[in-house]
Amino acid sequence: MLTIDLSGKSILITGAMGAIAEPMVRKLVAAGATLILVDIKSEEVAKQTLCDWQIPPTSHVYFSADITDSTALSQVVTQSFRRFPALDTVLGHAGGCGLHPFLTTSEADYDRIFRFNYFAQVNLARAVFVQWIERKIPGHLIFTSSYVARMPHTQIPSYASAKAALENFARCMALEYADTGIRVNVVSPGNVAAGSSLKVFDEDPAYREFVRRVSLGRRNSPESIADAFVFLCSPLANEINGQILSPDYGAGIGNRL
Ligand SMILES: NC(=O)c1ccc[n+]([C@@H]2O[C@H](COP(=O)([O-])OP(=O)(O)OC[C@H]3O[C@@H](n4cnc5c(N)ncnc54)[C@H](O)[C@@H]3O)[C@@H](O)[C@H]2O)c1
Questions:
Q1: What H or E segment, with its residue span, contains residue 225?
Q2: Quick one: which atom of ligand 1 is closest to the CA of 17?
Q3: In which residue ranges of the chain is pLDDT below 50?
Q4: On the chain, which terminus has fewer CB atoms closer than 10 Å, C or N?
């Protein structure tokens, strides 16, 4: 029998209170990891959510922070390493957008979405790499992207461009840091039946038709995305670097008209 044992491992996750994060948190804790959960939601809200998810309080610590604030993000990373000096896995998972057609999206909104989905991830890498280099930890940074990084999509130009930039940034970092043992990978989900895309799926027949054509007619479960993270966090993936792992039913490779 194959088991994945992450006991003794500490893993930092941003966007940890979201819809896809829920099965990620559950499965990583079930595998024995200790989690450092980071989200913009208040400590009070997070405490209730984690209680609803039945996550044991001994398995995690929580930091409320806005990851688009580079100072706040860097403080969270510093505090996390102080508390967990062997922290070797970081999941840059926070992201998202809502529909924002190009013509009706203000410059400020366009920039805000890009900053959240790209520059905040770059700042996370910057803060984490400093610690890993100083501590000589061959860490593993994993970003969450989306199939829209490779499949152009209407009404989400800032988000899709930011995710495309993120995937290439990840591969650039994988190369640049390879000689330190640090690895950088990406999980790139398809249309997930959770989170912000739920509302669009329920309300927009065109989106439902789109899903039918690009994703074998089905949306991905948040559990399948969590499984990809558990795999990448495990020793089974020790030799994987600079890759885009896509639990997306093939949505990222094209339209099957
Ligand atoms: N849902 C999908 O269909 C889908 C598809 C492909 C990729 N993704 C990606 O998966 C990831 C999670 O998506 P989701 O659908 O679970 O989203 P979600 O909206 O359910 O969760 C996002 C989490 O990020 C937190 N957050 C928002 N702004 C923040 C900030 N400034 N600082 C810190 N935390 C912040 C929110 O509080 C929330 O808990 C994102 O990177 C998203 O782009 C989602």
A1: helix 222-233
A2: 39
A3: none
A4: N
pLDDT of residue 30: 98
- The yes-or-no answer on residue 62 being catalytic is no
φ, ψ dihedrals at 193, nearest 5°: -80, 60
Angle at 4 between CA 91 and CA 15, to 5 degrees: 20
Please tell me the residue having the least CA distance from ligand 1 atom 8.
Answer: 146
Question: How are beta strands 10-14 and 89-92 bridged, if at all?
Answer: parallel
> What pLDDT is attached to residue 71?
98
Say how many C-beta atoms besides its own lie within 10 A of residue 131's C-beta.
18
- The pTM of the full predicted model, rounded to 2 decimals, is 0.98
DSSP single-letter state for residue 92: E
pLDDT of 197 reads 84
Contacts of 51 (CB under 8 A, 6+ apart): none
The CATH class for the domain spanning 10-250 reads alpha beta
- pLDDT in the model for residue 257: 66
User: What does the domain layout of the chain look like in residue ranges?
Assistant: 10-250
Options 62, 159, 177, 207, the catalytic residue: 159
pLDDT value of position 212:
87
What is the 196 CA–ligand 1 centroid distance (Å)?
Answer: 8
